[in-house]
Amino acid sequence: MNWKCKKTWKQARINTLWCLLGCSIGDFGTIYYFQKIDHSWSNYEVMGLAIINGLLTSIILETIILLKQMDFYSSLKTALGMSFISMIGMEIAMNATDLLLTGGAMLTWWVVPIMLLAGFYTPLPYNYWRLKKYNVSCH
Left (φ > 0), alpha (ψ -120 to 50) or beta: where does 137 sit? Predict the structure, then answer.
């Protein structure tokens, strides 16, 4: 496989950024919420819920974007099928970064950019490969 195609890398970056936007809304929103309330959840429970919410918000965002091109069922099916592996990798990378740097479930001004970079670069090669091999894009 040719890993030097600039057009495919550009499209893979765009797709990954859309996925990152969707994932980070749910993920960061959940962690932020739990930072602001009094709760008895462990960091791992909060991070697990953050991952689930990140996956859900990413699927919702991608489905909405795809509605411009296809019907709701096709949009949802495409959002679930084409980028779910990418979203899972992204979520795990972001939360593992948070765990390693802050102890988990803690958003700070300095950790968020690092989490976003980890979340962006982890699935990027997979997104490129998928585009190149199957000519499949979710956006």
Answer: beta
Instruction: List, for residues 103-116, the tens digit of each pLDDT value.
Output: 999 999 999 999 99
- Give the per-residue pLDDT at 20: 95
> Do 60 and 130 meet the contact criterion of CB atoms below 8 Å apart?
no
- Burial class of residue 37 in the structure, from the number of CB atoms within 10 Å of its CB (0-12 exposed, 13-18 middle, 19+ buried): exposed
- Which pLDDT tens digit goes with each residue over 54-103? 999 999 998 998 899 999 999 998 888 767 888 999 999 999 999 999 99
Longest dimension (CA), the chain: 51
* Cβ–Cβ under 8 Å, residues 90 and 23: yes
Rg (CA), the chain: 16
CA-CA distance, 79 to 62, in Å (whole number)?
6
Nearest to 50 by CA among 102, 78, 90, 101: 90
To the nearest whole percent, how much of the chain has pLDDT over 90?
81
Residue 16 neighbours by CB distance under 10 Å: 24
